[in-house]
Structures are given as C-alpha cells and as structure tokens.
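Researcher: Next sequence.
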Amino acid sequence: MLPEPIWPVVVLALIQLVDGVISAIPLPFIAKCFDDVRFPRRWWWVLPPTKFAAAAGLIVGIWVPVLGAITCAALVAYFLVAIGMHIAARDFGRNLFVNATGMLVICVAVGLYCFVL
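Model: Next structure:
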C-alpha cells in the first residue's frame, strides 16, 4: 500500500532537501543554532548528508512505504534529539519552540497521517 495522501510526504522531503542545502552552506541563522546547542563544528558536515538521505528516503518511500515510514520515524528521533540538545543547552527560544518542535510535529503528523492511519 502506498502512503495516502502522498503530498505531505513530498512536502516533508522538500523541507529536508532545503534544510540540507542551508545546513551545507550553512546560513548564519543555522550556524548560530548549531553554536547555541554546542554542536561541535567538526560534526557539522554530517547533517547535510543526513538531511539529503531523509529527503531521498521519503521520496523512495512513496513507492516503498516501509522505507518512508522508517524515514519518518528516524526524523522523529532526529528532532527529539534536537529538542534534547536545545533543552540541555538551555536554548529556550525560537530554535527550540518553532524550529525543532515544529519539525517534530510535522514529522509525527506525516508519519501518522500518511503511513499509519
């Protein structure tokens, strides 16, 4: 069975693709976010390929639903870790409440709506 509907999966994949691009540069607000949570600069290079892989997993997951569901679950785990990093760094601003928590909600919603329900 294919995910139904497909459009939220495609939107989430596009979000991950754009996030991978802006993390690869990184744009100043992304670099500040990484610094604010004390994410070591030597590990910044890991994030863009991870986000590109998530985008690819979601797109392939349209035809291989198990992969899409696993990718959604991995994104949920990723954003739970991100939220934990913000909390540990006492970064209780926009990056936590809008970016990380917002993306967690989107990933959970896409996973449940498209792959579970």
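Model: The chain has five helices and no strands. The two ends are 12 Å apart (CA to CA).
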